[in-house]
Design goal:
Elements (H helix, E strand, L loop, with lengths): L8 H27 L5 H27 L10 H15 L4 H32 L3 H33 L6 H7 L2
Helix pairs in contact: 1-2, 1-3, 1-4, 2-5, 3-4, 4-5
Pfam families: DUF892
Keywords: Coiled coil
């Protein structure tokens, strides 16, 4: 990808908006793929809702970029791409359905934390630059990400408890106890 010249705080802001826009698009792809991989109904519905929410968030980011008189830069969100690659590594290992669902939830939690960090910084920059309307749109995305994280954490708790009850869940603890 071509390197863009960044001389002003607004240039950096547009770059970071473009990065999170790319991230939202990657997240939608990851969520749609994961939705077809899992069997847990609550997790499937959560992934579907999150994908739709991410599409809306990408539209808001586009709106903010347009408010700034720019277009999204051709950047790729390497952080989101890395999270997707991590999930695909688990998928390639032929996991059990429960392990796959655990990996999907772990990936969703990491994704939410990444997005929360990104939107927190963008809201702060928009406010500092006096871009009140942009800050409001980005704050809306941030609030949605925080709410989604809570939902993902609830599902993660359920799945973690189910996985802990599976045979082999405590193999390392049992092996060290018998040594």
């Amino acid at each position: 990808m071509a390197t863009m010249s960044m001389k002003t705080p607004q240039d950096l802001f547009i770059h970071e908006l473009s990065d999170i826009h790319s991230g939202e698009q990657i997240v939608v792809q990851m969520l749609e793929q994961a939705q077809g991989m899992v069997q847990h109904p609550q997790l499937q519905e959560g992934l579907r809702m999150h994908a739709e929410q991410s599409r809306q968030q990408a539209r808001r980011v586009e709106q903010v970029i347009q408010m700034m008189g720019a277009q999204p830069h051709p950047v790729e969100c390497h952080a989101a791409k890395g999270l997707m690659q991590s999930l695909m590594e688990v998928v390639a290992s032929d996991p059990s359905p429960q392990v796959l669902e655990g990996a999907v939830v772990a990936g969703a939690m990491k994704t939410e934390h990444l997005e929360i960090a990104g939107y927190t910084g963008l809201v702060e920059k928009a406010r500092a630059m006096g871009q009140t309307e942009a800050a409001q749109l980005l704050q809306e995305n941030l609030q949605e990400e925080m709410q989604m994280l809570q939902q993902v954490e609830q599902i993660a708790t359920q799945l973690t408890q189910q996985m802990a009850a599976m045979p082999g869940a405590n193999a390392a603890a049992q092996a060290s106890a018998s040594s």
